[in-house]
Amino acid sequence: MRIYISVDMEGITGLVDTDDVQPGGRDYERGRQMMAEDVNAAVRGAVTAGATHITVNDAHGPMRNLLPEALHPAARLIRGKPKNMGMLDGLAADHDAVICVGYHSRAGTLGVLSHSFMGHEIEDMWLDGRPVGEIGLAQATAGALGVPVAVLTGDDRACEEMTEWDASVTTVAVKYARDRFAAELRPADEARTAIEKAVASVCAAPRVPSTASEPATLTVRWQSASVASALQGIPGVTATDFRTVQAQGALPSLYRQFGVWMRVAASMTNQPPYC
């Protein structure tokens, strides 16, 4: 059994503020430890379920948050950037399931550290007309590869968002949002036990492969009209208004193209991620 784990940071047990998740933040080093413990709980669950190959992709910010020496020895780590497939780099059709650890809700929701990929530089996103963030786009892209998302962990708003996209996914709420930078925290040991048990239980059961999707339309509204203007230089990208662009294509290639959009935007802006 081959398990793929994509790990973000905002939805990790105990973390609620930018200082917890940004390099240089006063609690970032502690946040890295908390991140490793949530991931290791998922890895232990996968091992219990019979996984023989576990890939962990550090999917947060600089993608160098997880310390290799802190990771469970049963897992291999994909670390650093750039990555062609970003948060899903290394995911392939021969994986049996995807586990999303530490995910957060999309921009505009009142979830802990909510945003969509680039802080407030991305104001809104839609996939085939549905509001989407990192959760929905990951689920759709994995599905296009024929790999089901099995478990997602994060705050309660992230779990609700996952259920809206795919009610068959098991979710584990490790905290409960009170506001964008505040939450009621589940005790760390309790949260990690819940993660481990959920992964062990779900991955042990046969999963129904996802069906490859038809060509999709991805639409993104940017804060900056300059970003939207520059992106129209990419073949296939069209504008719907001064700040909104869209493109059509098959996932996962459309997901990869979106990564190029973000690199263009990053080169043109210097926005703090959570203001």
Automatic annotation (TrEMBL):
Its EC number is 3.4.11.-. GO terms for molecular function: aminopeptidase activity; metal ion binding. Zn(2+) 1 binds at residues 8, 10. The active site is at 115 (nucleophile). Keywords: Aminopeptidase, Hydrolase, Metal-binding, Protease, Zinc. Coiled coil: none annotated. This is D-amino peptidase. It comes from Streptomyces iranensis.
